[in-house]
Write a structure and sequence with these properties.
The two termini are 33 Å apart. The strands form 3 sheets. Strands 2, 3, 4, 7, 8, 10, 11 and 15 form an 8-stranded mixed β-sheet that branches. Strands 9, 13, 14, 17, 18, 19 and 20 form a 7-stranded mixed β-sheet that branches. It contains 1 helix and 20 strands. The chain has 252 residues and is mainly beta. Helix content is 2%, strand content 46%. It has one domain. The chain has one helix spanning 245-250, and strands at 34-40, 45-47, 50-64, 70-81, 84-85, 91-97, 99-101, 106-117, 128-129, 133-138, 150-153, 155-158, 161-169, 175-181, 186-192, 199-203, 206-207, 213-216, 228-230, 236-238.
């Protein structure tokens, strides 16, 4: 799926042996805290499988530096979880253990969740499903050390309006895709959960299909033809690589 794009969180180096033994088994203890996940997918969209990253201070990841010396860090264990769709066909749910347990004593470090288009033909013909939108939620400082993650306590309920985003490229093999476009692809948050409580994450996106924004790629390597952004009102931004979300949002 294309929801795992250039920024996706789990495109990391191959797993190395744990110390003393590699074991990616999750076996949450009876007293673990849980995080209840809910994604409400608008019409023509679907929730992609939830991505949970666990880390371990028992089973370490070992790598070599340029001088061939060994460096050890917390081991990591990416887990993909299907969300359960309710009878109404729009609400997806899953429950994730904060303490993953197992011989490596896995602890939840990051969750990535969101939606992508489930079809394209209602808006554009002969297009592939493009990139997705959603949330990336950190549960420890290691996961949130790359940029600013807005702090939340115990629960996160997030809603934003997204827009259809058609991208067309013409250099080389012509391609067309339909994505969702928001203020950011994945909004970053850092959640802390009280020891006597469970966490909750609810994603409530809205898609406004009356406002379609389009990126037309350059058609020639000559004359500085870098393409253009075409907004729903017909206005054009040349030499831009991303639409202006606020401009799009404020259009009537």
């Amino acid at each position: 799926m294309k929801f795992i794009n250039g920024l996706i969180l789990f495109a990391i180096a191959p797993l190395s042996a744990c110390a003393p033994k590699r074991d990616f088994t999750l076996s949450p203890p009876a007293n673990t805290q849980w995080v209840d996940i809910e994604v409400v997918a608008p019409l023509n969209t679907t929730a992609f499988p939830l991505n949970a990253l666990y880390r371990s201070s028992v089973c370490l990841h070992e790598r070599r530096q340029a001088d061939m010396s060994k460096v050890k860090s917390r081991g990591y264990n990416p887990v993909h979880m299907a969300l359960q769709l309710d009878a109404g066909g729009r609400v997806y749910r899953q429950r994730v253990a904060v303490d993953g347990g197992g011989p490596c004593e896995w602890k939840l470090s990051m969750i990535t969740l969101g939606i992508e288009y489930s079809r394209t033909d209602h808006l554009v013909k002969d297009a592939e499903i493009g990139t997705a939108v959603g949330l990336k939620v950190a549960f420890d400082n290691e996961a949130s050390n790359n940029g600013y993650y807005a702090p939340v306590h115990n629960e996160l309920i997030y809603s934003l309006v997204y827009y259809p985003y058609i991208r067309e490229s013409y250099l080389g093999k012509p391609e067309r895709s339909l994505s969702l476009y928001g203020e950011k692809s994945f909004m970053p948050y850092r959640i802390t959960i009280d020891t006597d409580k469970n966490g909750k994450i609810v994603f409530l996106p809205t898609v406004d299909e009356k406002k379609i924004v389009k990126l037309e790629g350059g058609r020639s390597m000559k004359d500085n033809d870098n393409g253009k952004i075409i907004y729903p009102d017909g206005s054009i931004d040349k030499d831009k690589v991303r639409p202006d979300y606020n401009k799009l949002k404020n259009m009537k």
